[in-house]
Amino acid sequence: MTVQFLMTGNCRQAMACYIALMKSLPASVRVEVVDLYELPPDDARRGFDSPTILVDGRDLFGESPRTDLSVPPGSRDYRDGSLTVPSIRMAISRRLDAGRPPPLKESAPLAANGRKTGL
């Protein structure tokens, strides 16, 4: 899992979002912090506002980037409460579950000789 935290230096919500993100992840997961203003002008990530969490290149909460990259990144509004530790954990869990193959169907148990028992 690749996690990127997109932000701008003047974003009031960035620090709170970053802290919530770090509390939501296992210590083994690395987070790349990306300043949107330091990206090349044609980088598609400039289409997101600050702060944004990308997991494997996709916005954690399903937002799409602006296609007009000439518009500078602004502040993203999270008034819906999605920046809490539980909501970030739930969104990450949903994302990971969506990428997993469906569980295998259980087959009949095998006897000690390796043959199906017929149960």
Structural description of this entry:
By secondary structure, the protein is an alpha+beta fold. Helix content is 21%, strand content 13%. The mean pLDDT is 84.
Helix and strand topology:
Layout: E1 3-7, H1 14-24, E2 31-35, E3 52-55, E4 58-59, H2 85-98
Parallel strand pairs: 1-2
Antiparallel strand pairs: 1-3, 3-4
Helix pairs in contact: 1-2
Summarize this entry quickly.
With 119 residues, the chain is of the alpha+beta class. The protein contains two helices and four strands, in the order βαβββα. A four-stranded mixed sheet has the order 2-1-3-4, with helices on one face.
CATH class: Alpha Beta
Determine the CATH topology: Glutaredoxin
**Mind telling me the C-alpha Rg?**
20 Å
Number of helices: 2
Structural class: alpha+beta
Distance between the termini: 39 Å
Q: What string gives the helices and strands in order?
A: EHEEEH
Low-confidence stretches: none
Approximately how much beta-strand content do the residues carry? 5-15%
| Largest sheet, strands/sense/barrel | 4 strands, mixed
**What is the averaged pLDDT score?**
84
Essential attributes:
single chain, 2 helices, alpha+beta, Glutaredoxin, 4-stranded mixed beta sheet
